Amino acid sequence: MAVVFIGIDPDTDRDHCPTVWADAGTQEILLQGWEPDAETRAR
Prior knowledge:
By secondary structure, the protein is mainly β.
């Protein structure tokens, strides 16, 4: 799977980022980042 970089959260420090990638062949997106804590998931 070859993925293409789409973007990054502009408020990130660039080392601990949520980023978005896309696979045009499968038309899927990949989200890379930290897993949210329980409080964030509960919102």
